[in-house]
Amino acid sequence: MHDICTTPGGGLPRLLAIMDRLRDPDRGCPWDIEQDFASIAPYTIEEAYEVADAIARGAWDELEGELGDLLLQVVYHARMGAEDGRFDFHTIADRVAQKMVDRHPHIWGDGNRDKSAAQQVVDWEAVKAKERAGDGARRTLDGVALGLPALMRAVKLQNRAARVGFDWPETMQVLDKVQEEATELVEAKERLTRREVEEEMGDLLFVIANLARHLKVDPEAALRAANAKFVRRFEQIEDALAADGRTPAQSDLAEMDGLWDAAKSREKETK
């Protein structure tokens, strides 16, 4: 008997059938049956980051698999939605398809296609604002997802506020605020409670995100790159010490700082 679940080449229908089987109350997998939206959500976020990581590393041989893992998350949520009578994979796909058509009147409407990418972004945001109003969002900052990474959400909140004129006009004004917040934090850290220090640190990070926005830099991407650079250079420190039969714990800051500078110089030479 033909079973689409075990037949290669079935594409999306095969994946949907597999999820149906996994969630079947009588024949499914006990672990999969027990899951709900809340328990699956962390995996969805993790898989999205793994897609981004593969792209950042240029790991194109891994990307197909990572995209498949992310697609599985959508299929999982779609199946649970169907069980509750809320939505299914096909209504999800149709809804986003309609959204793309509605947001591109210059492609599927009478909009003018002869405009810059920047103007298209402005028009896109205008359409989104109209959609939010239709969904009941009334305040400027309504609808910015709470589950976003904090730096990403900060930029989105700032972009929303900037659209109604609440923004510094000059980048140097943002830089002045960065310096002000950093100075206040350092000067007050000894007399502040731990909670107050955390609040001041949050203010500083929020302004740093605003500085990135003014410089047209994605702070999440910039920090990921900085993390990768730190790992790369620190591993060179470890390699240099290992060649001498030692570990970082058997070194000191002055030596490791010198090895860091050497690693930094080598990177610059190879650019």
UniProtKB/TrEMBL annotation:
A Gene Ontology molecular-function term?
A: ATP diphosphatase activity
Q: What is its EC number?
A: 3.6.1.8
Catalytic reaction annotation: ATP + H2O = AMP + diphosphate + H(+)
KW Hydrolase (keyword) present? yes
UniProt record similarity statement: Belongs to the nucleoside triphosphate pyrophosphohydrolase family.
- The highest taxon in the source lineage is Bacteria
Q: Which Pfam families match?
A: MazG, PRA-PH
Disordered: annotated span: 248-271
UniProt domain NTP pyrophosphohydrolase MazG-like: residue ranges: 35-108
Name the record gives this protein: Nucleoside triphosphate pyrophosphohydrolase
Gene behind the chain? mazG
Query: Which Gene3D superfamilies is this protein grouped with?
Result: MazG-like (1.10.287.1080)
Query: Which UniProt key words apply to this protein?
Result: Hydrolase
InterPro entries per the UniProt record, alphabetical = MazG-like_dom, NTP-PPase_MazG-like_C, NTP-PPase_MazG-like_N, NTP_PyrPHydrolase_MazG, PRib-ATP_PPHydrolase-like
Q: Which GO terms describe its biological process?
A: dATP catabolic process; dGTP catabolic process; dTTP catabolic process; dUTP catabolic process; response to stress; TTP catabolic process; UTP catabolic process
